[in-house]
Amino acid sequence: MPTADIATEMTKADAPSSASLGCDAGRDSVNDGRWRVGNRMLAIVSALMLVIGIGATGYRTVKNYQVPGPFTPEKQGLCDFHNGIYFPARAVFAGESPYSDAYAAKYPVARQIPFFSPVILLMHAPLAILPLHFAEMLNTLLQVAMLFAIAAVSAHAAGYRRRLDVVLAIAAVMIFTRGGHITLFNGYFTFQLVLATFLAVVWAERRPVTSGWMLMIVSAKPTYILPLGFLMLARGNVRALVVGAVLSIVAATVPLGWIAYNEGGGNLNEGVSILVNQIVDTQEVHRSMEDESPLYSWTRLDLFAIIAKWSGNDPGDLPHLMVMFGLLALPMLVLYRRMQIGIDDGLAGWTGTLLMLGLLVSLYHQSYDSLLMTAPIAGAVGMRLTAWQELRPRVRWMMIALMMLPAMNYLSTRTFLNRFELSETMTRVFTSLSGISLAVALLVICVLAWPTKPATEKISNTQVS
C-alpha cells in the first residue's frame, strides 16, 4: 500500500524516545521502500513468541476440533468457520436461506446464522466450493495472513514504516490476546473485519473509493458499520461513506434477492416476506443464547450490556439503538470539532482512538472485537505521534491499560468462570471489567482530544513526515 495513505504524523525532530521499541529514528524516517529490522533482539523474541502462540493455538484447534454438527463447549476448534462461513456459503450457493430453521435442520451446524450481510459469505465463496478440510486449512492460512496485515497497518500508522521487528511484536501480542487467540481457534472472520475497518479509516480522505470497498466488507456486521458510519461522518469522510453505502447495498441485495427468489419458489415478493420472518426468528434465537444476552454474557464489551447486566433488565433492540446514539454523541462532537479546525492524527492517534472506542462502547460487541484497539495501543506505546508524546506519562499509561484490559481479561472467560465457584456479584464484576474500562477510556480520550485552540497547520491522516 502507498506510504502516504497511512498516518505517521511525527514530532518536529522525529526523535527517538525511550519507549520507541528500541528504534533508530533517523534511519527509520527514511522511506526507501525496504523492510528493515530496527531492533534485532525484539525481532527474535517476537518471532519466537509468535511461533509459540500460533503453534499452541493450532494444537488446541486440532485437539478440540469441532466435528460439524451440534455445538459443544469442549469442542470449539473451527466451530465458527463451520457454522458462520463454510456451510452458510454453501447454502447460499444452493439458493437456500442460512437464516432459516430448514437450513439448521439440513446442514451439520449448531443453528442458523444471525443476521449479518451475505457479503461476507460471498467473500469466502471460493472456500465453500472446496472439500471441508482443505477449506479449513486455507482459511487458517488466510487468518494468519490477516493477523500480519493488521499488525503491519498498525505499525505503519503508529510511525514504524516497514519495521519488521515492530510488526512481529504487534502480531505476537495479538496472538496472545483473547481476540487474537479465539479468532484463529474458532475460525471466525474478525480479522477481516478489523483489517477492513482500519483500511477504511486510513484511506477515507485520500482514497475514498478504496475506503468505500473496505466499508462494504465492514457492512457484513451491522454492529460494526452503524457506529463506524456515524463516527466517520463526524470526521468528514462523506465521499467514502457514500461509496461504501452504494457498494454495501448492492453487495447485500443481490445474494438476498437470490435467496428470496428461491425461498419463494420463484415468487420474489413472497420470498422477501419469508426471508424477513426468518431474519426476525433467527435474531430471537441469537438473543436467547447465553453468551449473546446482555444479562448473562461474559464476553460483551458494549456499555449497554453492562448496564443491562447490573439492572437485571434487557429492554430490547430499539432502546439499544437509542443508547448507541447517546453514547456516540460526545465522540462525534469531538471528531467534528477536530475536523473543523483541521486536526486528524490518523488511525493510531487520538482520532483513531476516538473512532475505535466509540465503535466498541456504543453497540453490541464481543471480546474478540477488542482487536480494534490494536492500532491505538501501538500508537500509545510506540510514542511516535505528537499527541501521545506530549501526553503526561501517567495518563498515557493509564490509557494503554484501559485499552488493553479487554484483550487480556482472562478473568471473564468461560474457562476461569467455570473453574471457580464465584458469587453472582463477583461474576458480574469480572464480566463487566472490560466494558467499563473501554467506557472510561472513551470518556478520557474525549476530554483529552477536545481541541482547545486551532491547529497552526492541518494535521492530515495522509501526511508523511
Automatic annotation (TrEMBL):
Pfam families: GT87 (PF09594). The chain crosses the membrane at residues 41-59, 115-134, 140-160, 181-204, 210-233, 240-261, 318-335, 347-364, 399-417, 429-450. It is a multi-pass membrane protein. The keyword Transferase applies. It is found in: Cell membrane. InterPro entries: GT87 (IPR018584). Keywords: Cell membrane, Membrane, Transferase, Transmembrane, Transmembrane helix. The keyword Membrane applies. Belongs to the glycosyltransferase 87 family. This is DUF2029 domain-containing protein. It comes from Aporhodopirellula aestuarii. The lineage of its organism: Bacteria, Pseudomonadati, Planctomycetota, Planctomycetia, Pirellulales.
